[in-house]
């Protein structure tokens, strides 16, 4: 067996972590032969709950799990880690937009950015889940200048999975028979779920999704709205935000970053924009990426029509506004 991968999960006493820790410890993310040591960060009032999570992890008797360290200290949580799942943040409640969380959550990511900068390996891979995820990831990276910007990302895989599942259900095919769905932009209700380049396997044949669905109006309206507002719909129904699906998507995100994407397939990740597809530089924007040797590259050359351009610009505008607000919060 190889050396253990050192993994930190923040918000470890919360609801997403409850599912995510199971997946990580079982080997779904770093592979079935990779031992893991876990540091679990949460805040002091959650210390007792965190203790319960540690007991349960122990009682699972996972073969790969070598050590579990619960802590409320960022130094202990981040020292020498290889991968960070930054989940810990306040979730929104009914009636709120995710950016309403900026005031409360952005400071967490300023502090954790500084701590990652000081204590984590420079090769650490960071996925930010806590909302507003794109802007939190941007702030975290800003305050960790010694770690390459490419090592920071935010979760839009849940939106990708939602879009994929909607199309599969519409076509009556398996989820795995839909690929190359793209999420552009912010993990918010302005995101642009784009299936113009997506492919469906129908009766053994690969067909472009728009051709298979045969309903442009559905794809431009109902489908878009359903994916954009899925988080709010779950909150309305559960009175709690998505957790199982968020954990599954987080595990998918890091697994693909760790092991790479297959063939010419791509996945969506929020990453630092350097201007691809006319997206403004300096925001964390979700793009289609291919991954090799733990490095992502944005898929080039996809055609952007007027409809897509408008949607992509709208979500970029929101991210620029969030960035300004976040910088103000950090200055205060
Ligand atoms: N990007 C995405 O696709 C998704 C993002 N989310 C977001 O993930 C975040 C967590 O959601 P849940 O687990 O449902 O919330 P939760 O409230 O169940 O758990 C959050 C945990 O974070 C902890 N926490 C708060 N401040 C912290 C700090 N400074 N350091 C470490 N831990 C801290 C809390 O004590 C709590 O245990 C929320 O912001 C939610 O909106 C949720 C679903 C999907
Ligand atoms: O919608 C929210 O604010 C919480 C969970 C979330 O981000 C989602 O379900 O997409």
Automatic annotation (TrEMBL):
Substrates-to-products reaction catalysed: (S)-malate + NAD(+) = oxaloacetate + NADH + H(+)
**Residue positions of the active site:** 187
- Which parts of the chain are coiled coil? none
Q: Which residues form the Lactate/malate dehydrogenase N-terminal domain?
A: 5-152
The organism is Batillaria attramentaria
UniProt KW Nucleotide-binding keyword: no
For the ligand (substrate), the binding residues are 92, 98, 131, 162
Organism placement in taxonomy: Eukaryota, Metazoa, Spiralia, Lophotrochozoa, Mollusca
Stated family: Belongs to the LDH/MDH superfamily. MDH type 2 family.
A Pfam family assignment:
Ldh_1_N
Q: What is this protein called?
A: Malate dehydrogenase
Which BP terms from GO are recorded?
tricarboxylic acid cycle
């Amino acid at each position: 067996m190889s050396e253990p991968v050192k993994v930190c999960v923040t918000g470890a006493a919360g609801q997403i972590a409850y599912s995510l820790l199971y997946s990580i410890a079982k080997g779904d993310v770093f592979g079935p032969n990779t031992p893991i040591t876990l540091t679990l960060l949460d805040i002091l009032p959650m210390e007792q709950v965190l203790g319960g999570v540690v007991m349960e992890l122990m009682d699972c008797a996972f073969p790969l799990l070598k050590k579990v360290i619960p802590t409320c200290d960022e130094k202990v949580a981040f020292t020498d880690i290889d991968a960070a799942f930054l989940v810990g943040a306040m979730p929104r409640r009914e009636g709120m937009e995710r950016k309403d969380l900026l005031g409360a959550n952005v400071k967490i990511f300023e502090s954790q950015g500084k701590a990652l900068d000081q204590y984590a390996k420079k090769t650490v891979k960071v996925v930010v889940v806590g909302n507003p995820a794109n802007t939190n990831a941007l702030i975290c990276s800003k305050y960790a200048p010694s770690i390459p910007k490419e090592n920071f990302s935010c979760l839009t895989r849940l939106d990708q999975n939602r879009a994929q599942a909607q199309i599969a259900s519409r076509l009556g095919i398996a989820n795995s028979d839909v690929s190359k769905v793209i999420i552009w932009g912010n993990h918010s209700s302005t995101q642009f779920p784009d299936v113009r380049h997506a492919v469906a396997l129908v009766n053994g044949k690969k067909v472009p999704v728009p051709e298979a669905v045969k309903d442009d109006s559905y794809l431009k309206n109902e489908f878009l709205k359903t994916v954009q507002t899925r988080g709010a719909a779950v909150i309305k129904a559960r009175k709690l935000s998505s957790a199982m699906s968020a954990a599954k998507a987080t595990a998918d995100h890091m697994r693909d970053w760790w092991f790479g994407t297959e063939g010419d397939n791509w996945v969506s990740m929020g990453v630092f924009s350097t201007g691809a597809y006319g997206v403004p530089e300096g925001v964390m924007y979700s793009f289609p990426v291919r991954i090799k040797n733990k490095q992502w590259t944005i898929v080039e050359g996809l055609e952007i029509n007027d409809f897509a351009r408008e949607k992509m610009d709208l979500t970029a505008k929101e991210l620029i506004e969030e960035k300004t607000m976040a910088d103000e919060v950090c200055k205060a």
